[in-house]
Each structure stands twice: as structure tokens, then as C-alpha cells.
Amino acid sequence: MINRITVENFKSLKKADVSVSNLNLLMGLNGMGKSSFLQSLLLLMQSDYLEERMVNLNGTLVQIGQGKDAYYQFAEGKNITLGLCINEQHYFSWQLPYMSDKEILLAVSGFSKEQMAIFRENTNKFQYISAERIGPRDIYDTSSVMVIDKKKIGILGEFAAFFIEIFGLDYIVSEQLSHTNAVSTKLIHQLNAWMQEISPGVLINTKYVSGANKVILDYQFELTKERTNAFRSKNVGFGITYVLPVVLALLTAENDKIIIIENPESHVHPRGQAELGKLIALAASSGAQLFIETHSDHILNGIRAAVKENHIDRSKVNVMYFDKKTTDKEQFTTITQIRIDKNGALSDYPKNFLDEWSNQLSKLIL
Question: Which of 101, 222, 298, 325 has its CA 20 to 30 A from that of 56?
Fold first, then answer.
């Protein structure tokens, strides 16, 4: 597991040095540096040629552009630094000189074959779900390499339907993540149970179309004793399909797996968001390490409730609030780390963190 992340002179991150845990929640107003923090991890994950002292700015996970797009503009000639501490014993620090018009960063220090072997060994189980995801479609893509070989859902959730088709009846969800209302611990039954917290009664169906090498995804809804007819995904609420890869990624959490999810709450009702918060907490308690970027108070409160209800130990939860400091000469991201006590109470309440409800309510009662 990653224990500490340091980032210097990368985008808005002048200097960030934070301890991280199993569940790391990134919160803050738009444009405060949350995505930049995640991108520092994604750059390392997507750089297949780390042994050649190279970090790719543009790859399968993130596209930064050129060196000038990655560099903190007030750094005055200093290197970009990316550092990780893994399992409290392996520390990596990559020094990456700024090259304005290049699409790579070449390290001047911090690389060795031994280090890279340790880094890859500890980060090979990895899933990233971006803020932009695949919505309802008539038919979905397949990939035997990504799904069957690598057990990936796809950055956009584009292989979620195929993943369900392949592993729905074979993959067993861990006990920590099991929903009490599910028929069994098989993935499809657990997926249905958790999705019903978002859309009551929903049932997921997939069908492989061999001639086209595609997958059809549709939905039914439970009646008292029967089911409705099947509905195409385009004819069901947009949020159901949009959140499906998020729930799937969380249910396939396992020990030492790193999962990064951006805006899991998109298009989901507040009640469903709170249940996602609980599932996120359960996924982290299973031994996975999660980095969740969110704007949802409901996600946070679902996690807080999970702490109080002993679904996850409070020491495994790390809330990071991102803000920016502006002076006469520069502007840079600041990160406040917030802890949760055993009753779900927060250690700090920075300005603009959880006060919008009160702000709007005060306008209504005046």
C-alpha cells in the first residue's frame, strides 16, 4: 500500500507531502488541484518505460500535454518531483527536469531496475474510473485482453457489461463487501443488490452477441412476484448505467488493489450517493487502497456513518480538502488533512468545505 505521496512543482502543486491510507477522499471546489494530485499517480502508472528513466505525459490514463502544461509556473527552474513511500519501507523519489516542448519527462535521479521492480510489484493491481464514463448504449465493446487477462473494467467503464457477462456468475465478492439482501455472494447477485440501493428493484442483464463480438446490456425491475420486461439501457435512467462501472469496481476490490475513481456520485440521487459512501468504506476495509475525488457531502457522510457503525476503522480514512493560496507573486494548492473520530465527527471544517447547506438556508430564512 502507498503510505505517503510527495509532489513538487507539478501543475498547481508547488509542494505537497501527505500521508495516505486505505480510503483517501479528495474534496474541494473546482480547480483547486484534486485532479492534479491524482494525475501525479496516473503518470507513473501509465509510464511503461520507467526502466528507461522516462515518464509519459500522454498515455492511456491521462493526457497532460507538454512539459509546459505539467510544470508549476512559478517554480523558477526547479525540477518536478514525484515521490512515493510504499509499505512503510520503500521510498521512491523521481527528479524530472522541466522541458517546455517535450511530451515526456526524463528523470535525472531516482531510477533503478530494482526500484522499478518493487514499484511495479506493489502497483500492478490497479483500476481507474474517470469522471467521464460510458453512458447508455445499444451495444457495448468487448476485450479479452483487458477483461479476461487483466480483469479491467476500462477507464470509461466501457468494458463493464463484458466484465459482468464473463465474471457475473464466477466471481465471488468478498465477505466484507457482501450486501445482506443479495441472493448469494456471486458478483451478479451482489451487483444487483447494491444497484438496488440506487434504483430500487433494478436487475442487470447482459448478453454476448458472438457474431458482432459485442455485449448487450439491459435492465428489468422486480415486481411483487415477477419481473418487468427488459428495457434497453437508453430507456432507463441515465444515472443507472453511469454508476454501474463504479459499483462494479468497488465490488471487485481486493487486498493491495489500488482503485482511483473520479466523481462516483455523478447522476446519482443523494440517497444513492450515501450508499455509495458506505460501499466505498467497505471496499477500503477489504484491504484495497482507494483514492476518491468527489464533490458530494452525501458520499462523505456515508463514509462517516460507516465509521460510526464500525464498517471501517477510522484510522483507515483520510479526508483531504484542497484549496488555493494566492499571494502577490504566486498561487498554489494547499491540502488540509481531516480525520474522522469513532463517532463520525470531523477534526476540521475548512471554509467552503461543508457549509453550503447553511449558506443557502440562511438566505431562505432571512
Answer: 325
